[in-house]
Amino acid sequence: MEGSQPNTYTGNTYVQSGTLELMKQPKATAVRNVIVEQANLQISGSHQIEDTAKVTLIRKATFTFNGAGGVGLTEKIHTLQADGQGVINFAGGTLAVPNVLETTQVLLPTADDTLFIRNWIEFSDYFLVSRAFAPNSAALSRIWFEGWDPGAKLRDYNTSHWEIVPFAAPEPATYGALLGALGMGAYLVRRGRRPSHRRGAAVAGRAASSGVAEVSRRQIK
After folding, report:
1. Which of 3, 90, 118, 186 is geometrically suited to a Cys-Cys bond with 125, CB 3.0 to 4.6 A?
2. Residue 108: DSSP 8-state
3. Which residue range(s) make up the domain with 103?
């Protein structure tokens, strides 16, 4: 779905097979509420979905950020809900231009619902939730990041939002202290290493460092 004009259809959009790619030009909203079941919703440009929309991922449906050429994308929605298992797949974010998924709330309605985050790289991909509607510890325990032990936590981002990160991810201040003491910052950036406590190998093609000193938080616009 592309072009320079907003989509005037105001009903729900259903994706039940294959991939629906959204690549409207900036400020031209492609869709509103989206229900994806065993299929892939892919954004190839920023701000493709209405800010007040709900995106529902059903039965291993995937929400993909296609940040081609190392240019991260920004998407703001109201609600992200996983029914069964939902997947967020980040691609293309960098330290300079990260991927940012900003949500008001993240819902996992039942104890069997999980949200799996693929290709997440620290400081290159941001998964945000409003401080007013932050998920509780039970819901966070069902958010899993590829290559990390199961579970997530909330980390300070700015005055309005938390960042959802792997439970084992260090706080930014910890990174700064460790790298400053060890003098390893430049080495880790050059090597593109992730934290040593992760379980799996880094996904091919996403060799970007998570072990860098804290970068300035971007204010949400």
Report:
1. 90
2. -
3. 2-169
Whether residue 217 is contained in a domain is answered as no
Instruction: Count other Cβ atoms within 10 Å, centred on residue 134.
Output: 15
Which residues have C-beta within 8 Å of that of residue 94, sequence separation ≥ 6? 70, 71, 72, 124, 208
Q: What is the pLDDT of residues 141-150, one digit of tens each?
A: 999 999 999 9
Q: Residue 204 falls within a domain, yes or no?
A: no
Nearest to 66 by CA among 143, 7, 134, 2: 2
39 closest CA partner among 1, 89, 114:
89
Encoded amino acid at 10, one letter: T
- 111, two tokens: 């104890």
In the predicted model, is pLDDT for residue 78 greater than 70?
A: yes
Tell me the β-bridge partners of 97.
Answer: none
- Cβ neighbours of residue 1 closer than 8 Å, sequence gap 6 or more: 7, 20, 21, 22, 23, 24, 30, 31
Which residue type sits at 66? N
Q: 154 with 160: CB under 8 angstroms?
A: no
DSSP string for 172-211: HHHHHHHHHHHT-HHHHHHHTPPPTT-SSPPPTT----S-
The pTM for the full model equals 0.77
